[in-house]
Each structure stands twice: as C-alpha cells, then as structure tokens.
Amino acid sequence: MSFKENFLWGGAIAANQAEGAYNVGGKGLSVADLKTVGGNGKERMFTPTIEEGVYYPSHNAIRFYDNYKEDIALFAEMGFKVLRTSINWSRIFPQGDEELPNEEGLKFYDNVIDELLAHGIEPLITLSHFEIPVGLMEKYNGFADRRTIDFYVNYATTVFERYKEKVKYWITFNELNFGTMSHGELTVLGIHPHGKYPLHKMPNDEKTRFQALHHTFIASAKAVIAGHKINPEFKIGCMIAHLSMYPLTPAPADVLQCKEYDLLVNKFVGDVQVKGEYPPLIKRYFESKGIEIQMEAGDLELLKSGVVDMYKFSYYMTLCVTTQNGAEASMGNLMGGAKNPYLESSEWGWQVDPTGLTFTLLDLYDRYQVPLMVVENGLGADDKVEENGAIHDDYRIEYMRKHVLAMKEAVEKGVDLIGYTMWGPIDLISAGTGEMKKRYGFIYVDMNNDGTGSLKRSKKDSFDWYKKVIASNGEEL
Ligand code: BG6
C-alpha cells in the first residue's frame, strides 16, 4: 500500500503571511494588520491603530499580491497538485458588515485561482486564516456577538458562489481549536491566536470564549450547509491544530491528565465539526465550571446537518503532559508542554516527532473515519545563503522525508489520507513571531525580519527534492 494515485501533494500559505498590499484595492483592515513583529521568545503585540515607526509584517509580507504569477509558476515547477491559501476576508468585505462585496478584492482572487488552474493546481481555500475585519471587532466584538455569524456566512456564500466552478476544497476556519485555550481569546473573538488584542471589550474568561466558540461552530455549520447547496461536490473541511500529546511518565495521574487535555484541546472542536455534536464529557466540564452556552432553537440541528466532509489538520510537533512540578518545558504552535527526553528540538524549541504523525493519523482515523488531510507540516529554520547563492537545507529535507515516511506507514495501516500540503513552500512571515528568518520554504525569499531585502525568490536544495517526491508519488525520498 502506498499513497493514492491522485494524492494531493502541495503546500500551504495564508493571506496575511504572504500577500501584503494590506490597504490596496479597497481592502479594509484585518486584525492581522494591527499586529507587530515579535521574535524568538518575544511575543507579538496588537496596537489599537497603526502606529508610526512600528513594523507590521502583514503590510507587505512577501508581496504575493504582486508576485503570485512567479510564485505559482515555481509551485507548478515542483509539480504541485494543490495549493492551500486563504482569502483575506477584509479584502472582500472591508468592514465586515457590508451587504455587497468589494469587486476589486474578488478580482485578485479570480486572478490567483485562474493562475493556479492554468497550471493544473487545485486551489484549497481557507475562509478565515487568523483573519477577521477590524470593523467586526470594533462594532461587534467579533464572534462574541452572534450577529457576526451572519456576516461570516454572507462572506462565505459570496465566495462559494463566485468560485463554485473553480474551487472544490475549502476550510471554514484555520485551527479553530485555539478557541479552547486561555490565550486563544482572539480565536473566538477575532480569529487570531497570538498576542493581546486591545479592541474588544469582552473579558477573556472561559464563559466568553466558549460562547464565542459556539458562534464559530454555528458559522462553520451554516457555511457548510450553504456550500453544499451551491455545489454538492464541494469538499469542506475543519482545520484543527492537532497538538498530539503523550503522558510524560506512565504515572496514572499523568496518563489521565493527558487524556483530559487531549479531549479539551484537540478532540472537542473536531468532534463538533465532524460528528455534529458537543462531546458528553465537554458538556459535563461546562456544567462543573458553571458555563452555560447560550443556544438558539435549531442550533443543535444546525451542528448536525453542517458537519464537514473531511478532517484537515496541522502537525508540527508533539508535547508531553505531566502533573509533576519542575518538568523541563518545550515550545509549540499554540501551546507548549513538558519536554520529551526522546526527541530533538528545532531552533524555536518545537520537538520533532515523525512517529507522532503516524500515531496521530491512526488516532484520528480511528475516531472519525472520514478522509484525512495534513494541511500543514514543516520545519522553521534560519537558512544560510552560501556565497554562490546556494541554500543547503538538508535538515529540512530530513524533517520532511521522515514525516512523509510516517504518513506512508499510516496509509499502510489503513488510514484514508488524501493529501499533504506542507507549510510555507515559499518563505513567509511567521504567525507566531512575525519573523522572516523562521523559514519553512523550498523557495527562499530575500527578506529580513524588519522587512528589508530585495524579495528575490531562489530555490533551496529542498526544491528539487520535493519535486522528486511529488513526481514519484512519495516513493523517491
Ligand atoms: C500554524 C498556522 O499554527 O503554524 C500558520 O496555521 C503558522 O499560520 C504555522 O505560520 C507555523 O507557525 P509559525 O509560528 O512558525 O509561523
């Protein structure tokens, strides 16, 4: 058994980390445009307005807005079957609550999608990748207010209609399980996980967060229902940052804690979106905390009929859980944990664990039995450019080779895996730190953390490696 014949090989980027042109073509401000640069170990901040002299990485990003033709041609040269990207909501609805879309914003995505199709690359579109128009934050506190559901559905329906003949694969929200975490206030209020956001007037408490999360569930379900009406062939997925966890020790208390965290952090959101209902243990958790989710009549039915068609997830690292004090810490996307003594770490402290990917695929397929897709995976590293311009990123090749082998093992064991879009095929802005030097790409972009640089694109060694992987459908690694 190996990868399916039509396995979707490709890469994933996101609008605010790649496009730039933050105020071009009638685009409104997105929360991402108020986010400052951070660093390795230095948190990014939100400012209430754009401040003079402050660097906001999304404003120019890597100028995919102007360079998309060149970039897509390079993806095509590697043989991409799919490109995952997102639509920037505030390009289409600048304030968020307009009735009619901004035609100029749509034109840009017409061009990108047509360019992809001309190269035989299937677009996979995320509707909200850590993005929401600032207007919706200012007027409605984002998804804390139920009215935001309709604005989101109007946006989703607009782009579904526009691209119904061209786009088959969709994701409603990126890494929605951020909303379960204490620093995830913005996932639910404003769809952005890192940093404190000054514009909303709601408390960051569990009650508010879970209420807002409920609104995103309803928004996602309504979008799925609308999408399937527009084109029954649409394949719409959830997107979960699957933070696979192990108990640090076999102490039963560690094992139990790990089980409970896994449910709250990983499985809860996936269960709602894939099975269409709140898991019973989560309902009990809410009761024990005095949290009562306000629902409208029909909400539970909506969740049931708006289930997604497939489970999509990101996977970078694993973490350990322990009840014991004093364990050494490790880092990760969204959250860290206790350090696993058996694993190596990246320069940013994320623990590299290919076997964990096989484990995760088995775990997820066993639970959901729907097609799975890995829509983010990769290694952030500070690449060195040699004098002759070469970039020897053998560490990236090594990371990816092991993860592709791990997927293969899961497929051999019976998992229905339909595709793999590694994260950041072209270097782009880091979501966590805003840095440029945390690079994931096969394509190098000449740009520094402060935004200086020629933006010239060049190929790293991994470029030809991935081309070979795709051409051999994962056999030549
Ligand atoms: C995921 C996000 O959490 O991780 C991406 O969906 C992000 O937007 C990726 O870029 C890698 O994280 P980072 O912080 O290294 O950019």
TrEMBL record:
UniProt-listed InterPro entries: GH, GH_1_N_CS, Glyco_hydro_1
Domain of life: Bacteria
SUPFAM superfamilies, per database record: (Trans)glycosidases (SSF51445)
One Gene Ontology biological process: carbohydrate catabolic process
Record-stated family: Belongs to the glycosyl hydrolase 1 family.
PANTHER family assigned to the protein according to its UniProt record, in alphabetical order: 6-PHOSPHO-BETA-GLUCOSIDASE (PTHR10353:SF296), GLYCOSYL HYDROLASE (PTHR10353)
Transmembrane segments: none
Keyword Metal-binding: no
Cellular component, GO, one term: cytosol
Keyword DNA-binding: no
Coiled coil: none
Name recorded for this polypeptide: 6-phospho-beta-glucosidase
This protein's UniProt keywords: Glycosidase, Hydrolase
Gene Ontology MF term list: beta-glucosidase activity
A Pfam family the protein falls into: Glyco_hydro_1
